[in-house]
Amino acid sequence: MKYFYFLIILLFTVEASAQTIPAGYCGVEYSYDAAGNRIKRKYVCVSALNTLASVPAEETVEPLISGIYPNPNDGRFSVNFSKAIPVTQILILDVGGKIVGREMISGTKTGIDISHLPDGIYFISLKYNERKITSKILKVR
Prior knowledge:
Blueprint: H1 2-17, E1 26-32, E2 38-46, E3 52-56, E4 65-69, E5 76-94, E6 99-113, E7 120-128, E8 131-139
Antiparallel strand pairs: 1-2, 2-3, 4-5, 5-6, 5-7, 7-8
């Protein structure tokens, strides 16, 4: 019986000290050198399928849209991108999320005209490299 208790205690001790992240969650994993100093930090997400995907914690995502001007505008505005994008569909949405316009765009700069729409707040949305990018614009006369 005392071996049974010993195995239970050993099992819980090993599990508590292990660095595991449950499936479907994200967390930080640390790496240590031989002296016990923390030398590396990784942000790790474990999908429900139990595959490990990691992104370095110091990695930053460059914003794709570098500027929208003028904003506020009268319905005609330009969108500048930080790098040339391939042909992509851009959606114009109202505040309720209803699609009120679509345009095909490409390159590093594009002009959009929504002067036929009433004044208000709109969002432009596009998908690029599996990321959805959304920005707010204000149309006033």
